[in-house]
Write a structure and sequence with these properties.
The complex is a heterodimer of chains A (about 110) and B (about 110). Chain A is an all-beta fold and about 110 residues long. Chain A has no helices and 9 strands. By secondary structure, chain B is mostly beta strands. Classes of the chains: A mainly beta (about 110), B mainly beta (about 110).
Chain lengths: ~110, ~110
């Protein structure tokens, strides 16, 4: 399974945009990029996923580099409720695909009022 | 719509005992996965079931087993509990198992082994 690299922690001010980076230099052509977040004392929450094109939903935007070796999760206006651990995960295809999610350490986002 | 529901929410067991954790997926979801999350770490994959068949198993000992029922609910069983089994056990459901779909997680069962 291809691996991802994320900063351990980031800080943001409330109501400002947040850009959470993820490097995945060994990504294969069919790997999807998924993002989840986990708020304190809760299970992970699906945020967004994409393959090649940038993606938007009500929670966030996902910007994918042209070579797909990196991506950025964008929270357009951070709120205190966005303080969480954010995980960038690659989902693979192929005969070994069990559908599992491989969680790394993620990025702990702190949002300051 | 109800989300993924897990029961019980908290559980305390003694070393050597057996435990059964339960999960009800979102209506219409046919895939259920189980994860273990030790304090301070990301969740680790234990099992995935789709249409009542095991599709994948993580690096866990045979003391861990699971099954999925015809209504797509699932049970995770752990025998001969060890102190190291203390963790948050998470269940996730999805319409299918492949990479096109995201998972919805429950809030988990907090297991403490004493």
């Amino acid at each position: 399974d291809a691996k991802t690299t994320q900063p351990n922690s980031m800080e943001s001010n409330e109501e400002e945009p947040v850009h959470l980076p993820c490097n995945h230099s060994t990504i294969s052509g069919t790997d999807y990029i998924h993002w989840y977040r986990q708020l304190p004392s809760q299970g992970p929450e699906y945020v967004i996923h994409g393959l090649t094109s940038n993606v938007n939903n009500r929670m966030a935007s996902l910007a994918i580099a042209e070579d797909r070796k990196s991506s950025t999760l964008i929270l357009h206006r951070a709120t205190l409720r966005d303080a969480a651990v954010y995980y960038c995960i690659l989902r693979s295809d192929g005969s070994s695909n069990t559908g599992k999610l491989i969680f790394g350490q993620g990025t702990t986002l702190q949002v300051k009022p | 719509d109800a989300g993924v529901t897990q029961s019980p929410t908290h559980l305390i067991k003694t070393r050597g005992q057996h435990v059964t954790l339960r999960c009800s997926p979102i209506s219409g979801h046919k895939s259920v996965s189980w994860y273990q999350q030790v304090l301070g770490q990301g969740p680790q994959f234990i099992f995935q079931y789709y249409e009542k068949e095991e599709r994948g198993r993580g690096n866990f000992p045979d003391r861990f087993s699971a099954r999925q029922f015809p209504n797509y609910s699932s049970e995770l069983n752990v025998n001969a509990l060890l102190l190291g089994d203390s963790a948050l056990y998470l269940c996730a459901s999805s319409f299918m198992w492949d990479r096109f779909y995201g998972y919805t997680f429950g809030s988990g069962t907090r297991l403490t082994v004493v």
